[in-house]
Fold each of these.
Amino acid sequence: MKTGFIHSIESMGLVDGPGIRTVVFMQGCYLRCKYCHNPDTWEMRSGSAREVTAKSLFSRISRFRPYFGKDGGVTFSGGEPLLQREFLIEMLSMCRSGGINTCLDTSGCGNGSYKEILSLTDLVLLDIKHYTEEGYRDITGRSKDEADRFIQAVQEMNTPLWIRHVVVPGITDSDGHLAGLESYLKTLKNIRRVELLPYHVLGVSKYRSMGIPYPLDGVPPMDASKLEEWNARLNRECCIPC
């Protein structure tokens, strides 16, 4: 029985996939996104992490099954769940055997071996950090090569996709940038939804408490109303009919 490190569990998630979902926030991430609001999930074995067995976690998830209905289920988020590959596979397998719908909320940055994970995943919520190498490096501090490998695996497996993209004032909020995102998304198949997420500053206090400089200090939150037209356009132009 595999063990894994988790940060926290949300029992009644409403925005991390279809229906009512249990959201498991897994520990560990090697990206350092400028707008990350969970720096306490970066290190695999930190003070905020708890080590759990797959059996005990599945037992806890199963208690919420009456709330799932036909559309809900469990979403594995993070941090970056792909970094705990063997534990994630065991959890996904148990959920598949138990008839629980699974979503993977990910930036696509794990170890380069994804097809077994995707074969057990009903939906991928993919966080597109940026569609160019230069922009991706600026936001995350890493190359986008690993994310590209994950996206290729998703395409080969034909796994349904929800796309997410954080819109930051002065960085990813221009019409030119969003038009480029549209062109990129049109190269991908099986997109069911696109969500432009307005940048917020809710995680700034965590940086202060951890003694970490906040990379976007002084950048104001994004006005969500300014994204309505682009949200509608991207869902119209880039998604397959439901």
Amino acid sequence: MLAKHVQGKEAEATLSPLFGQRSMDSSIPRWQIPETELSGSAAYQLIHDEMSLDGNPLLNLASFVTTWMDPEAQLLMQEALPKNFIDAEEYPQTAEIERRCVSIIADLFHAQASGQQAMGTSTVGSSEAIHLCGLALKWNWRKRRAAAGLSTSTPNIVMGANVQVVWEKFVRYFDIEARYVDMAPGRSIIGVPEALALVDENTIAVVGILGSTYTGEFEPIEALDAAIVELNAKTGWQVPIHVDAASGGFVAPFAYPDLKWDFRLPSVRSINTSGHKYGLVYPGVGWAIWRDTSDLPDELLFHDNYLGNDQITFDLNFSKGSSQIIGQYYNFLRLGRDGYTRIMNNLLDTANEIADAIIATGDFELVSSRQALPLVTVKLKGKRRYTCHDLSEELRLRGWIVPAYTLPPKLDDVEVLRVVVREGFSRDMADNLILDLTAAVAKLGQSPPAKPTKKPHSRSKNKVC
């Protein structure tokens, strides 16, 4: 997040220690560096106490991001903290572990079925992976157009209006026209005919989402692929599909192995996924995987040798930590296919139990799909004197962080609550959530707010995460 430089009278604010350590017997500047040093224990205590004001990660049902890992994984990640990942000459085994992870993920995404040479890289998260994949798509489109003597001035990308905000950043940062497929009553994900109607010779790609941020639904990527194949055959275009599998990339291979969404489909040229979501790693690590070396334009690859050897890189960040990559490899070894399958099925079972319990109250309707991500999205039934935002605030009093938001444009009159189920969220905690939600509904029904809270959706300010 952006932060401002605090100056003037506001900068005079100080931090007042809670405990009477002798080294903390005077106020400490809040917005300027202190003149004198503190002991390590004093600095720790001061920051530790202040961080206690944050929400409890265990009760944070808003985030897809992993909040629990094995102690052994944490130890390995701690041991890797001093290692700058980019220093491959100094830390060759860490680089080797990244290569193994790329290969494992490409295999999960059925790269072998394409008969081509898949490539990939780790990233700080899916946001960086999306920027990299999007840049590759733009450069390849531009090369094809230039080779044919055609204009390269008006690239566009087709995607549903339900995309995560990073796609808005991508098109704005890299000067690409965004063509959004509007939502419609009964459809909160991309529609295939509606997407095809927006495609033309300047389309660098069509984006399919494997796990919508709003409802957890998987978009119809197999049907989208069939339509794109037919369109390309008819027009001579080479429009590809990019799959945003930030949330679903580590769910579908284990919970829905027969679902075709990946490199088994000929139009799918690149995929991004987040290791720090259902890859079960602490933030932040993402992965960008390309179907073939031909999908990576040479112009975007950089060679350098000033770290001791010739390295080829394709990234937005140069330096980055090694810990999350080590954590990802630990999970692959520790859990294997059976472990990931067991965890994903358990999470889906928990999500279904929560959905059943919420629907049984008679106060809500289910908006999310039961054949998608392990999350539950619901809306209130009928007219109420309170909103989902009011319920969210009421649950916050018990420590629960349950987001309320409106659906994408054309459906933004629908307000929902969403519960994301992650590893570490037990059935017992799910029971407690239902009890607290039921109590919140009863309380607001008896004593509704004077003015129901509603926070309208804005396409350019979508912060659902």
Amino acid sequence: MLARTDYKEVPPRVDYALTPLGRSLADAIVPLCTWGTENMAEMTSIFAKRDTFP
């Protein structure tokens, strides 16, 4: 999911990049993040009620 490039330098330098598989996972997570943003107020209310329940 991640490609790591170690340049074997001093000071150390390493780059990371998403592979095609990693990008496909990111594409799958975006709708979940969008849902969370769109429903944040309602979820906050639900959690607040839950946290005050005896």
